[in-house]
Amino acid sequence: MPQVEVPEVHLVTVPDRMIMIEKGLSAGVARAAAREAVRQARRRMPKMSGAAARGLQPLYGKGYFGIQWATSVVWYQDHGTNPFTMRSLAGKIIPMWIDDPTGQERRDNPKAKVRTTESGKIQVLIFRRAALIGQRKKIYRRDPATGLRVLVSDKPMSYPGAPGRISRREAGKPWTAPGKRPGAIASGNVGVRWRHPGIKPRSFLNTSMTQAAQKTGVLAQRVYVADKGWRNYVRLHGEEFK
Question: What is the DSSP string of the chain?
């Protein structure tokens, strides 16, 4: 079945649920639609540990049904985010789960924690420290002739926004784009450290709600994105859910 979406009405900036309303909808049909929407969303959403997917819960009652989520990660996965430099990490030690398909990280760090994602990838927990903004790494050596310390290297440390990182290069032959040089720095390269690439929107919540409505015979018109005060917001929009 092709993905179908309905218009969204955003009632709050930090939502934790999505609601669809149909006047006269029985509680039994609403329950079936809500459970089907959660099942569809869990199947479609990206999963690592699966905790966010397990946090999805059905919402239903006379005249409405929907999905509730326990963490804001679900909303960002659904609607996406823009790329940004993670400046809030400056000076902190950051835990990072990295892929370890060859087992090299496990051999190098036999005491490190290991997990298997929902997709079957093996990952190892490592830790990296992000330097303070503007912090630099200076290396000295002692001049044998004078006995004085001499500065031989002075470069930015790995702080959020530090220059020098090449994150994208042109593909090698024979996959190089026409007019480009293999291995050259690609256009659009960010070139800074601790840069989050952003999240591509997936719209699995809307699609799951719409298909659940179609499957249970509910007329899919629009969905409301809200929080626990959604009933008051909806009334302000003139909707009736009983």
Answer: -------EEE--SS--EEEEE-TT--HHHHHHHHHHHHHHHHHHS--SSSHHHHT-EEEEETTEEEEE-SSTHHHHHHH-B--EE-GGGTT-EEEEEEE-SSSHHHHH-TTS-EEE-TTS-EEEEEEEEPPPTT-EEEEEEE-TTT--EEEEEEEE-S-TT-B-----BPPPTTSPPTT--TTPBPTT---BSSEE--B----HHHHHHHHHHHHHT-----EEEE-TTHHHHHHHTT----
Mean pLDDT by 10 residues, the chain (242 residues): 78 93 92 97 88 94 94 94 92 93 92 89 93 94 91 91 79 85 77 87 94 93 90 70 56
Supply the pTM of this predicted model.
0.75
